[in-house]
Amino acid sequence: MSLYKCTLEKSNPFAKYDICFKQGSPGATDRHVTYTPVRCSDPNIVLGYDYGGEYATLSFKDVDDNGVSEIIISSEFWCTYGLELCVYPARTTIKIKLDNRPTFEIFEKEELTHLKFRLPNFYLPKNA
To answer: How many structural domains is the chain composed of?
Structure first.
Protein backbone atom coordinates (compact mmCIF):
# COMPACT_ATOMS: atom_id res chain seq x y z
CA MET A 1 0.00 0.00 0.00
CA SER A 2 1.14 3.52 -0.69
CA LEU A 3 0.17 6.83 0.80
CA TYR A 4 -1.66 8.71 -1.91
CA LYS A 5 -1.57 12.48 -1.71
CA CYS A 6 -3.03 12.82 -5.19
CA THR A 7 0.39 13.22 -6.86
CA LEU A 8 0.93 16.81 -5.74
CA GLU A 9 -0.01 17.70 -2.19
CA LYS A 10 -1.73 20.91 -3.35
CA SER A 11 -4.21 18.86 -5.40
CA ASN A 12 -5.52 17.16 -2.22
CA PRO A 13 -7.60 19.90 -0.58
CA PHE A 14 -7.82 17.86 2.62
CA ALA A 15 -4.07 17.51 3.27
CA LYS A 16 -4.21 20.79 5.20
CA TYR A 17 -6.64 19.03 7.57
CA ASP A 18 -4.20 16.10 7.93
CA ILE A 19 -6.36 13.87 5.72
CA CYS A 20 -4.68 11.76 3.05
CA PHE A 21 -5.70 8.62 1.16
CA LYS A 22 -4.00 5.26 1.25
CA GLN A 23 -4.23 3.46 -2.08
CA GLY A 24 -4.65 -0.30 -2.11
CA SER A 25 -5.47 -3.25 -4.36
CA PRO A 26 -7.14 -5.85 -2.13
CA GLY A 27 -7.68 -8.49 -4.82
CA ALA A 28 -5.35 -10.85 -6.58
CA THR A 29 -4.82 -8.25 -9.33
CA ASP A 30 -4.69 -4.46 -9.54
CA ARG A 31 -8.13 -4.36 -11.17
CA HIS A 32 -9.97 -3.21 -8.02
CA VAL A 33 -8.37 -0.11 -6.50
CA THR A 34 -9.36 1.29 -3.10
CA TYR A 35 -8.67 4.54 -1.28
CA THR A 36 -8.80 4.69 2.51
CA PRO A 37 -8.84 8.04 4.34
CA VAL A 38 -5.97 8.21 6.84
CA ARG A 39 -4.05 10.82 8.81
CA CYS A 40 -1.20 12.28 6.72
CA SER A 41 0.88 12.57 9.88
CA ASP A 42 0.29 8.90 10.77
CA PRO A 43 -1.05 6.69 7.93
CA ASN A 44 -1.80 3.95 10.49
CA ILE A 45 -4.71 6.04 11.79
CA VAL A 46 -7.65 5.11 9.57
CA LEU A 47 -10.39 7.75 9.44
CA GLY A 48 -13.07 5.89 7.49
CA TYR A 49 -14.00 3.03 5.24
CA ASP A 50 -12.11 2.24 2.08
CA TYR A 51 -13.88 3.24 -1.12
CA GLY A 52 -12.96 1.87 -4.49
CA GLY A 53 -13.83 0.60 -7.89
CA GLU A 54 -12.58 -1.07 -10.99
CA TYR A 55 -9.38 0.72 -12.11
CA ALA A 56 -10.43 3.61 -9.89
CA THR A 57 -8.70 6.98 -9.68
CA LEU A 58 -9.06 9.62 -6.98
CA SER A 59 -9.97 13.24 -7.63
CA PHE A 60 -11.64 16.15 -5.88
CA LYS A 61 -14.35 18.53 -7.07
CA ASP A 62 -17.00 20.73 -5.46
CA VAL A 63 -20.02 19.10 -7.11
CA ASP A 64 -22.72 20.74 -4.98
CA ASP A 65 -21.25 24.29 -4.98
CA ASN A 66 -21.04 24.51 -1.19
CA GLY A 67 -17.38 25.58 -1.16
CA VAL A 68 -16.08 22.18 0.02
CA SER A 69 -14.68 19.66 -2.45
CA GLU A 70 -16.14 16.20 -2.61
CA ILE A 71 -14.04 13.06 -3.03
CA ILE A 72 -14.59 11.35 -6.37
CA ILE A 73 -13.49 7.78 -6.97
CA SER A 74 -14.06 6.84 -10.58
CA SER A 75 -13.31 4.18 -13.17
CA GLU A 76 -13.83 6.72 -15.94
CA PHE A 77 -10.22 7.46 -16.97
CA TRP A 78 -8.81 3.92 -17.14
CA CYS A 79 -12.03 2.41 -18.52
CA THR A 80 -11.91 4.98 -21.34
CA TYR A 81 -8.19 4.99 -22.11
CA GLY A 82 -6.84 1.81 -20.49
CA LEU A 83 -5.89 -1.49 -22.07
CA GLU A 84 -8.48 -3.69 -20.34
CA LEU A 85 -12.23 -4.15 -20.71
CA CYS A 86 -14.18 -2.88 -17.71
CA VAL A 87 -16.96 -5.01 -16.25
CA TYR A 88 -18.20 -2.76 -13.40
CA PRO A 89 -17.16 0.83 -14.15
CA ALA A 90 -18.55 3.26 -11.58
CA ARG A 91 -18.19 6.70 -10.03
CA THR A 92 -18.66 7.29 -6.30
CA THR A 93 -18.90 10.82 -4.90
CA ILE A 94 -18.22 11.12 -1.18
CA LYS A 95 -18.97 14.09 1.06
CA ILE A 96 -16.72 14.82 3.98
CA LYS A 97 -17.69 16.55 7.20
CA LEU A 98 -14.59 18.20 8.63
CA ASP A 99 -14.60 17.77 12.40
CA ASN A 100 -12.01 16.64 14.91
CA ARG A 101 -12.89 13.15 13.69
CA PRO A 102 -13.97 13.66 10.04
CA THR A 103 -16.87 11.64 8.70
CA PHE A 104 -17.37 10.40 5.15
CA GLU A 105 -20.72 9.73 3.50
CA ILE A 106 -21.58 8.53 0.00
CA PHE A 107 -23.30 11.41 -1.77
CA GLU A 108 -23.85 9.71 -5.12
CA LYS A 109 -22.97 6.40 -6.71
CA GLU A 110 -23.52 5.72 -10.38
CA GLU A 111 -22.69 2.90 -12.71
CA LEU A 112 -20.91 4.13 -15.84
CA THR A 113 -22.78 1.84 -18.21
CA HIS A 114 -21.46 3.64 -21.30
CA LEU A 115 -17.99 2.27 -20.42
CA LYS A 116 -19.08 -1.31 -19.71
CA PHE A 117 -17.26 -3.83 -21.92
CA ARG A 118 -16.05 -0.95 -24.09
CA LEU A 119 -12.97 -1.43 -26.21
CA PRO A 120 -10.25 1.13 -25.46
CA ASN A 121 -10.13 4.07 -27.89
CA PHE A 122 -7.09 2.89 -29.85
CA TYR A 123 -8.90 -0.35 -30.84
CA LEU A 124 -11.75 1.53 -32.48
CA PRO A 125 -11.72 2.34 -36.21
CA LYS A 126 -11.14 6.01 -37.06
CA ASN A 127 -14.76 6.56 -38.15
CA ALA A 128 -16.33 4.98 -35.01
So the answer is: 1
**Residue 93 falls within a domain, yes or no?**
yes
Strand partners, 60: 71
What is the C-alpha separation between 67 and 59, in angstroms, rounded? 16
| 126 falls within a domain | no
pLDDT of 1 reads 46
In a domain, 125, yes or no: no
Task: Tell me the residue type at 23.
Answer: Q
The secondary structure of 59-115, three-state, reads: EEECCCCCCCCEEEEECHHHHHHCCCCCCCCEEEEEEEECCCCCEEEEEEEEECHHH
User: DSSP string covering 11-24, please?
Assistant: G-TTGGGTEEEEEE
Identify which of 24-28, 92-96, 97-101 has the greatest average pLDDT: 92-96
Instruction: State the Cα–Cα distance between residues 63 and 56, nearest whole angstrom.
Output: 18
Print the domain residue range for 114.
Answer: 2-118
pLDDT digits (tens, 9 = 90+) for 55-80: 899 999 999 998 889 999 999 888 88
Q: Which amino acid is at 105?
A: E
